[in-house]
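User: Here's a chain of 115 residues. Predict its fold as tokens.
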Amino acid sequence: MHEISLVRNIFRTLEEEFPSDMDNIRGIFLKAGLLSNVQPILMQNAFQAVLEDQPQYNKTSLHVEVLPILIYCNDCDKTTEVQQYRFVCTCGKPSRNVVQGEELLISKVEFAEVT
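Assistant: Prediction complete.
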């Protein structure tokens, strides 16, 4: 299950970025494109498995937003959402220019308010 290694990499990235604030992270928000091969439910399951192994992050939650596949058409200069994995613009021309849908990004990190 590659999701566990993805979750571990996310925590590693956050530990590098926020070494002194890891105890205050409450929410991790991801954007996952349909072509990224990431299933939100599997990411949630992997996240829970990692939390069992690293209880210091038990107050943290994971939120995954799935992004549609968007292609750009050079012929009509439009961006179109791919439907049913048909990489065809609304003008009828096929396109290989994927502009969204392959990414897996940490889009936002929420921290607890420190008093």
